[in-house]
Write a structure and sequence with these properties.
Layout: H1 4-11, E1 19-23, H2 29-40, E2 44-48, E3 53-60, H3 66-69, H4 72-85, E4 94-97, E5 101-104, E6 107-115, E7 129-136, H5 161-185, H6 188-195, E8 206-209, E9 215-218, E10 227-229, H7 231-237, E11 241-242, E12 247-248
Parallel strand pairs: 1-2
Antiparallel strand pairs: 2-3, 3-7, 4-5, 5-6, 6-7, 8-9, 9-10, 11-12
Helix pairs in contact: 4-5, 4-6
């Protein structure tokens, strides 16, 4: 009988430049990525064979100082959203909550984490970054319809398991496209794509992402200093993640 890891190796269609590392159900893709990043190199993609989650991580080798390189999070968020959107009906919406939570049709689906070497200074180029992605595939608890309207799963929203597996390969392609866009056109198009999925608090407000990855917001008609929301603080909170469940929170 084929194991879940063998199924993943067969099902994941990764573009050239990626190396697949498959973990069994007890594995932790993000933690494993942090542990092996220094030796594994860019393009190593770690996938966990969990049927309740789509869980994977990818190792990056940035060329920018850490303070600026953390903006890779937004490339990862865009790639995840584009991968989900590629496998759902066009009328369904993928949205974000600052900075790392992913919502599908208004319900929390998962999120993205970002790791870097602990001894890397803000002004130094990190030897590696690790992007970790978790999306709820199925609900493991028996939840009556409407009992937890703030949470959704891929299977509960009409995806099939084969589509869940395909999301990983689609993410890998969109991630490459996102970094190519950043390299060729600068970061502004990446920021615009991210902000298009981040709901506004007020109509007409103007928003941007600065070189350190912080969110800048001006109220309508306000030409003064923008309000700043820290990327680092948001990453530290990981508001979407429940360490007890080792997965997205049940809202």
């Amino acid at each position: 009988m084929m194991s879940r890891v063998d199924e993943a190796e067969r099902a994941l269609d990764l573009p050239p430049g990626y190396t697949l590392v498959s973990l069994r159900e007890s594995g932790d893709a993000f933690a494993h990525g942090l542990a092996i990043a220094a030796q594994a190199g860019a393009g190593t993609l770690i996938s966990v064979g969990r049927y309740d989650l789509v869980e994977f991580a990818v190792v990056l080798e940035p060329a920018k100082p850490l303070a600026s390189a953390r903006r890779a999070l937004f490339v990862g968020m865009n790639a995840t959203a584009d991968a989900i959107a590629a496998h759902c009906q066009p009328e369904r919406e993928v949205n974000f909550a600052w900075p790392d939570s992913i919502f599908f049709d208004g319900g929390l689906l998962g999120g993205v984490r970002l790791g870097w070497p602990k001894d890397c200074a803000e002004t130094d180029v990190p030897a590696w970054l690790v992007l970790g992605v978790m999306l709820r595939a199925v609900d493991l608890v028996n939840i009556e319809t409407g009992a937890m309207p703030g949470s959704v799963s891929l299977m509960g929203e009409g995806f099939e398991m084969v589509q869940a597996d395909a999301i990983v390969g689609s993410f890998a392609r969109h991630l490459m496209i996102g970094f190519d866009l950043w390299n060729e056109a600068g970061f502004d198009p990446v920021a615009s794509n991210y902000l298009a999925r981040l709901p506004k608090n007020k109509a007409g407000e103007r928003r941007g992402i600065d070189r350190d990855g912080d969110l800048l917001v001006n109220a309508p008609l306000d030409m003064g200093t923008p309000d700043r929301t820290s990327l680092l603080d948001g990453l530290a909170r990981a508001a979407w993640y429940d360490p007890r469940l080792r997965g997205p929170k049940l809202a």
